[in-house]
Amino acid sequence: MVFCLRRRDGLPGLSLSIAFTLVWIGLIVVLPLTALVLRPWQDGGGVMLRALHDTRMYAALRVSFGCAALAAAIDVPLGLLLAWALVRARLPGRRAIDALIDLPFALPTAVTGITLATLYGPTGWIGALLARAGIRVAYTPAGIVVALMFVGLPFIVRAVEPVLRGLPPELEEAGLLLGASPVQNFRRVILPPLLPPLVAGFSLAFARCIGEYGSVIFIAGNQPFHSEIAPLLIVVRLQEYDYEGATAIALILLLSALVCMTGVAALRRRVSRGLVARGAA
Amino acid sequence: MGEPSRRGNAVLVAATYLTVLAVLVLPVVLVMVEALRAGLGAAWRSLLDPDALSAIRLTLLVTLVATIVNTAGGIMAAWLVTKYRFRGRGVLVALIELPISVSPVIAGLVWLLLFGRQGWWGDWLDRHHIQIAFATPGIVLATLFVTFPYVARTLMPFMEQQGREAEEAAFLLGAGFWRTLWRVTLPDARWALLSGILLTTARAIGEFGAVSVVSGHIPGLTETMPLHIETLYNGYQTVAAFTMAALLALIAMATVLLRSFLEHDFRKGSS
């Protein structure tokens, strides 16, 4: 990496903070991730090719990606509702609700896992109700979706909230005054500016959900080809001492998450540029 | 100011309460109810079990190390990235944020690839009788990786806003780097710093996936609190499992509330 400094940078501590930061990032992030990227090619690419022919891996990836997409999609309207209420409604207890929304992010995943498994289990508060209606959630892919919904919700709310705060409420009123029906108003006036943050929130939730482990494994049932998520298969492969198989799945998961994050970053840049341009006009 | 109609507002508020109750509050209530199912005494006794105490001790140790290292690193990185302009700055920020998008299981796996028996340095470590994987050092490394970005990430936007006039003035008045950092920059950023440290601590205490991969799951030896919850839960010791879960849930709720107050403060302070 080349550090080209401008001349006016006269603050002290530059070399010290460079050294400290590089050692910190190098040892904790770059070194282990280098091992992850290089490992599968170490004994030639054959190992990687064999790992890529593993049908159980594809099944697990399908479960992970499918459930993550579904959970994030269900979270979009829920997150929009919560963000809308936080910004626009006269909401008693707003501060408490605002804080609670971050709870899934702070609650240890193992706690989330055993709690949701109990709540939605056959004798749990919600599970018993659903069982009477003939619906099984725990120990099926539906259980995975429920757990991932919990984990993904804050990402949507926190992505939409700041954008919503920046939109003048007059916009919506103007639409209604000009004779739009509430549905038209929502589709034509409210939704367009919120679409980029909703897509960003969806991608962030999705990226987080495909890698999620602790909150899922207790409720999932973990049957191969049916309700086994990709992160769990990594753990299984490791227990079988199949490091190559584990690393192949890990690389695919990591790349997918990175594609999502890069997309979000691009989206963010576009949105902020758009807002700046509009503000200047 | 656009006031929603009274009926519209009531519907919106009701729907919000319902969602928050069903999705966020109900699980927390369930943890507490399950923990206290056999009474407060039984819950308390389950925490005094030697394996439980050992898990609490290990969690505290790991959290302490991870928080100190990542707070120090986070402060230095935030200083570097926000007080200077240089090429490669974007790459540095991306690398700092990278661990957020890495699955916890992968955050554990990467250390096995280095220090596990089949890892790059596994043989060498074996010959010298140094154990990193499936021991406390491995658990610390996995936690370091998972909690890596939070202090830097909370500090960076705040310190970017600070600019560097105050630091330049301190420097012209003869203060060195440490003095400037300690007396000028950090006092101003203290709420953001505290918020980042809180998040780091909470994530370190609760980390499960990464630690699970490198731990080896030996009760009383290499189990942290979340891992011990899994062992108890799978052994049908429901009260003990949920008591420890309740302890972690209380810590999580305290963290979330404190951070919300802090953020309120530094949002108000900066505007």
TrEMBL record, chain A:
Xref: Gene3D superfamilies: MetI-like (1.10.3720.10)
PROSITE patterns the UniProt entry points to: ABC_TM1 (PS50928)
Keyword hit for Calcium: no
Transmembrane segments: 16-38, 59-85, 105-130, 137-157, 246-267
The UniProt record lists the keyword Iron-sulfur: no
One GO CC term on file: plasma membrane
SUPFAM superfamilies found in the cross-reference section: MetI-like
GO molecular-function terms, A-Z: ABC-type sulfate transporter activity
Keywords from the UniProt entry: Membrane, Sulfate transport, Transmembrane, Transmembrane helix, Transport
The organism's place on the tree of life at top rank: Bacteria
Subcellular location: Cell membrane
Domain ABC transmembrane type-1: start-end pairs: 61-264
Membrane topology, as annotated: Multi-pass membrane protein
NCBIfam families assigned to the protein according to its UniProt record, in alphabetical order: 3a0106s02, permease_CysT
Subunit description: The complex is composed of two ATP-binding proteins (CysA), two transmembrane proteins (CysT and CysW) and a solute-binding protein (CysP).
PANTHER family xref list: SULFATE TRANSPORT SYSTEM PERMEASE PROTEIN, SULFATE TRANSPORT SYSTEM PERMEASE PROTEIN CYST
Known function: Part of the ABC transporter complex CysAWTP (TC 3.A.1.6.1) involved in sulfate/thiosulfate import. Probably responsible for the translocation of the substrate across the membrane.
Similarity annotation: Belongs to the binding-protein-dependent transport system permease family. CysTW subfamily.
Listed name of the protein: Sulfate transport system permease protein CysT
Phylogenetic placement of the source organism: Bacteria, Pseudomonadati, Pseudomonadota, Alphaproteobacteria, Acetobacterales
UniProtKB/TrEMBL annotation, chain B:
Keyword Transport: yes
Gene3D superfamilies reported in the protein's UniProt record: MetI-like (1.10.3720.10)
Pfam families: BPD_transp_1
Subcellular location: Cell membrane
Coiled-coil stretches noted in the UniProt entry, renumbered to this chain: none
A GO MF term: ABC-type sulfate transporter activity
Entry membrane topology: Multi-pass membrane protein
Keywords attached to this entry: Membrane, Sulfate transport, Transmembrane, Transmembrane helix, Transport
GO cellular component term, pick one: plasma membrane
Keyword Transport: yes
Positions of the ABC transmembrane type-1 domain: 56-263
Residue spans crossing the bilayer: 12-36, 56-80, 92-114, 134-152, 238-258
InterPro entries: CysW_permease, MetI-like, MetI-like_sf, Sulph_transpt2
Main localization, broad class: membrane
Function: Part of the ABC transporter complex CysAWTP (TC 3.A.1.6.1) involved in sulfate/thiosulfate import. Probably responsible for the translocation of the substrate across the membrane.
PANTHER family in UniProt: SULFATE TRANSPORT SYSTEM PERMEASE PROTEIN, SULFATE TRANSPORT SYSTEM PERMEASE PROTEIN CYSW
Assembly mode: The complex is composed of two ATP-binding proteins (CysA), two transmembrane proteins (CysT and CysW) and a solute-binding protein (CysP).
Protein's recorded name: Sulfate ABC transporter permease subunit CysW
UniProt source species: Gluconacetobacter takamatsuzukensis
This protein's encoding gene: cysW
